[in-house]
Amino acid sequence: MKRKYKLLLIILTVIVSTLTLTSNKIISIYNDKITLSIKHLFEKNIKTEVTINSINTTIFKSFPYISVKINDLTIYEDSSFNYDTLIYAQEAKISVSLFNIFTKKNDINQLHLKEGQINIRFNEQPNYLVYNSTINPDEKKSIVKKIKLTNIDFRFIKEKTNLYWYCKNTVIIPEKNVFKLQNDFFSTNLNIGSIDYLKSKNCFLKTKVKISSDSIIIYDSDIKVEKMKINAHGYILKSGFLSLNVNSTSQKLDEVISQLPANIKNLCAPFIATGIINYNAIIKGNTKNSNPKLNMDFNIVDGTFLLKKNPFQMNKIQLNGTVTNGAKNNLKSTKIDVSSFDAQPENSKITGNFIIENLNKMYLKTNLKCDWDLSVLNNYFKDSPFLNLSGNMKTNTNYSGEFSFNSLFKKYFLKSKNHLTHTKLNNVDFNYLNSDLYYSIINSTVNINKSKTSILNSDIIISDNKFSYEGEIQNLIENLLNKSKMIEISGVINSATVNLNKLKSKSKNTSESTFPKFIKFDLTTNIAELKYKNFTAKNIFSDIKYKNNSIEVTNLSAEGLDGKIYSDFTIKEPTKNYLVLNSQIDFDNINIRRAFKEFNNFNQQFIKENEINGVGTVELDVEAHWKPGMIFDNTKLKINSHLVIEEGELIDFKPLENLSTFISLDDLKHVKFSTLENTINVENQTITVPAMEIKSSALSLFISGKHSFNQNIDYKIKLLLSELLFNSFRKKNTSVVSEFGEFKTETGNLSTIYLTMKGNTENPKIAFDGLRFKEELQNTISTEIKTISDIIKEDVLKSKDSKKKINNNNDEIIIEWEEINKDVPKY
Question: Residue 627 belongs to what domain range?
C-alpha cells in the first residue's frame, strides 16, 4: 500500500514538473507575442488612447489560463470630454485560456481591475462610447466573460444625477445582452436633483439586467442599505420612462427611517419610532423633466412612538396605509393616508385613521378615538396646573390643520381649519397648583369646537361639595397650551349643598394675586343649601360675573334665618392680595336670635343670642377690606344700616340690668317691645347709634351713642317710666328727686329719666344725666312761656277797645337755676 502512494506521489511530481517546464517554455516562447496581443486587443477594440506601464504574464495561479498583469492601465475619454480619464486601474489582470491563444481567439475569461477609478459622464453622449464600431465584421469581437472590480471609485454624472460609490468588491458577468451584477460598495452619495438618497451608506447589490438599444430591464434584485433589505424589479426606457416595483418585508422601522434621505428623515427628528414595517412601492413615470409617480402600500406592526422633548409614548402600534406623491410628484403634493391606526399609550388606547399631506409643510386630517388613563398625562404635561391627575377620559377627535412634531404644533393646532372633539370624563380626580382642595369630576360630557368648549353636563365635587355645571368655556385649550392668558366661562351652576368651610384652602397663597388673572366668567347659580360656619341658607339664586380682578354678584336671593335675604355685591382686588367688598344686603323678616346664633353673636359680647329675640328687617350697605393673607382690616369697615325689629324681646340683657339702680330688676329682666327702628352706622372702628326707641307697656327706652370695636361705650339713655315704675324709681332715688324736684310727666302718664352709660361693656358706668334734664326742662319752660305769651297777645290784648299799645320793653319771664352740684351721683 505504501508503495502505491509513493508511486502516485512520484507521478504527480513528474506531471507538475512537466507542466511547470512546459508553462515556462510557453511563456518564454509566447511572452512577447502575448504582450503584443494584449496591446493589439486594446488598440483594436478601444478607439481612444490607452496607456499601459508594463505587462507581466504568469500561469501558475490560474492554470490552464494565462494571467496577464497590466500595471497602470489608463483608458481616456474622447475629445468631447477633454481626453479626461475614463478608466484607471493601478493593476489590471486579464485571464486568457491557453487554448484561445493557440487558436487565436480574442475571448477573455476574466478582466479584474484593482485600485482605480471609473468615471461615467454625459453631455450630449455618454463618455463610455469608446468601443471601436469600425471593426471588420469578419473579425470576431472580443468577449469578456467576467469582470471584477476591487477597490474602485465609481462616479456617475448625468444632468441631475450624481453618484459616487466606492466599489469594494464587484463582479459583472455578461451574457450577450444580459448582465449579472453583484456589488459590495460604499455609497458616498447618490444625488437625484437636490436630494441625496444614499449618503454615506454601506450597500450591497445583487441584480440581473438586460440592456438593449432602447431599454434596460431589471430582473429581481436584492439591495441592502446598511441593515435595510429591499427587493426591486422593473425597467428603464431610453426615453427616460421608469417603472420599478420596490418591496421589503419584516424590516425594522428605525432602520428604514435611518436610511431615508435627509429631507425626509428630518421630519422624523422629533420622535423615535420602532416596529416592523412591510411595504410595496411602484415607481413609474418619466424622469427627464420631473419626478416619477410613487404609490406605496405599507403596514407597521408592534410599533412604538416616543417624542424626544416630551415623554409621550405609544406602544403596540399597528397601522395600514398608502403613500402617493400626488399630482405634481413632489413632497408638496405627497399624501400619506393611514386607513387604520391602533396604539396603546400606557394604560390607554387610540384607534382611528389620519391623512398627512404636503411633507414640506405638513397638513393633518384625523379621526381618532382615544380612551385615556389620565394618570399618564402627569408625565406628559409637567407644566400643567392640574396635579395628581387620575381617572378616565374618552375622546373622539376630528382635526384638520397644519401639523408638526415640534412646539410649532401648538400654534398650528389653535389656527386649525377644523377641530371638533367630543369628550367624556369619568371619575377624574386632581389637585390645582398648591391648593390643598381636591377636585373630582364624576362624569362630564364636553364638546370642543376650536376655541369653544361646550359643557353639556358635568357632576363635579370640590372637597365634598357637589356641583353640576352646563355652559361654555372659551380659550380653555389655548390656556392649557400656554397660548392664551384668558379663559372665559359662562353657564349655569347647580348644587344641592355647598359647605364653604370645606372650600377654604389651608395652603398659603404665594401667587401674585388672590384672584386668578387668566379667567373671567358670567355664571348663574342655583344652590339648594349653603353652609358657612353656623350659617345656613337655602334656595340661593344669583348671577356672578368675574373679570379684571373683580367679582360682581347680582340678583342674589336666598332663604335663611327664617326669612329672606337679597343682595348685590362686588369683591375687588385693587392691589396684590388685597380685597375690598362693597355690598347691599337686605334681610326680610329674619329671626334675630337665629341671626345672632348663626353668626356667632357677630363676634361681640355686648348682646348675645340668648338675650335678644324678634323678627327683623335690615338694610345694609357694607364696605369691608382684607389685607394679604385674608386678614380682616376692621379699621376700614364701613356699614350703613336701617334696622327694624318687631315683636322684640330683651332677656336678661346685662346693660339693661345695670339700670336696676334706678328701676326694679324684675322689671328689666324681660323687656318686650313691639317695634324697634333705627339707622346704625359703623366707621372708624366705631358703631354710631342715633336716637332709638325701645317701647314697652312699662317703659320706653330711648338710647343713642357710640360703641367702639374695643368695647368702649358712650350711650345716652332716656327712660319714660310708667307711674308704677316711676314710684319705684322715686323710692330708690330720693336724693335725685329731692335735688331736681318732680320729673317731667309725658303724655300717657309716663315720667322721664335721663341717664348716661359709659366705660367698657364688661363694666359699664351708669349715671343720672342732670345736665340733659336741665336742658330738657329749660326747653319745656321756654315753650310754655311762649305759649302763654301767645295767648295773652291773641286773646287778652286784642279784646280791649282801648287799643293800648303793649310796651315791647316789658321784662321777660326769667327762671333762675341754683347751681347744680357738679358731682352728679353715679350708681
Answer: 508-651
Confidence (pTM): 0.69
Please check whether residues 639 and 692 belong to one and the same domain: no
Same domain assignment for residues 627 and 693: no
CB hemisphere CA count around 598 (13 angstroms): 15
Q: 473 lies in a domain?
A: no
Tell me how crowded residue 496 is: count the other CB atoms within 10 A of its CB. 11
Same domain, 647 and 662: no
- Please report the DSSP string for 675-739 in residue order: EEEEEEEEETTEEEEEEEEEE-SSEEEEEEEEEETTSEEEEEEEEEE-HHHHHHHHHH-HHHHHH
The single residue listed with the C-alpha cell 435611518 is: 258
pLDDT band at 3 (very low <50, low <70, confident <90, very high): low
On whether both 615 and 662 belong to a single domain, the answer is no
Q: Of 79, 132, 128, 126, which is closest to residue 238 (Cα–Cα)?
A: 126
**776 and 719 both lie in a single domain:** yes
Q: What is the amino acid identity at position 540? A: I
| Closest C-alpha among 205, 105, 100 to residue 149 | 205
The secondary structure element, H or E, covering residue 162 is: strand 161-175
Residue 125 has a CB neighbour count (10 Å cut-off) of 11
Q: Is 589 left (phi over 0), alpha (psi -120 to 50) or beta?
A: left
Q: Which of 651, 685, 702 is the last residue of a domain?
A: 651
Task: Report the candidate in 269, 279, 270 with the shortest Cα–Cα distance to residue 300.
Answer: 279
CA proximity to 87, closest of 100, 102, 76, 101: 76
Split into its structural domains, the chain has a count of 2
What is the residue whose three cell numbers read 340678583?
555
Peptide bond into 64 cis (omega under 30): yes
**Which of 449, 374, 441, 443 lies closest to 419 in space, CA to CA?**
449
**Contact at 8 Å (CB) between 286 and 292?**
yes
**Is 764 among the domain residues?**
yes
Instruction: Please state, in angstroms and rounded to a whole number, the distance separating the CA atoms of residues 363 and 402.
Output: 4
CB 217 within 8 A of CB 209: yes
List all residues 6 or more positions away from 713 whose beta carbon is below 8 Å from its beta carbon. Answer: 606, 705, 706, 707, 757, 758, 759, 760, 761, 764
Q: Can you name the residues that pair with 126 across neighbouring β-strands?
A: 122
Residues 611 and 572 in one domain: yes
Q: Please count the CA atoms within 13 angstroms of the CA of 822 that sit on its side-chain side.
A: 0
Q: Which residues contact 111 (CB under 8 A, 6 or more apart)?
A: 92, 93, 94, 95, 144, 146, 147, 148
Residue indicated by cell numbers 444625488: 191
**Rg of the Cα trace of the chain?**
55
Residue with cell 511563456: 27
User: How many whole angstroms separate alpha carbon 267 and alpha carbon 356?
Assistant: 12
Helix (H, G, I), strand (E, B) or coil at 790: helix
Please, are residues 507 and 537 in contact by the beta-carbon 8 Å criterion? Answer: no
pLDDT tens by residue, 556-577: 999 999 999 999 999 998 888 8
Find, among 724, 729, 676, 723, the residue nearest to 703 by Cα: 676
Calculate the alpha carbon distances from 520 to 474, 555, 569, 627 in Å: 10, 19, 17, 23
- Decide which of 610, 628, 651 is a domain's last residue: 651
- Domain check: are 670 and 685 in the same one? yes
Task: Name the residue among 595, 588, 569, 591 with its Cα closest to residue 580.
Answer: 569
**What integer is the mean pLDDT of 460-467?**
89
pLDDT-wise least confident of 484-488, 515-519, 783-787, 821-825: 821-825
> Is residue 628 a part of any domain in this protein?
yes
Whether residue 675 sits in one domain with residue 627:
no
Residues 5-14, mean pLDDT to the nearest whole number? 56
388 with 346: CB under 8 angstroms? no
User: Which contacts qualify for 465-472: CB closer than 8 Å, 24 or more apart?
Assistant: 465/495, 465/497, 465/498, 465/499, 465/502, 465/503, 466/495, 466/496, 466/497, 467/493, 467/494, 467/495, 467/498, 468/493, 468/494, 468/495, 469/493, 469/494, 471/523
Spatial CA neighbour of 699 closest among 730, 655, 664, 741: 664
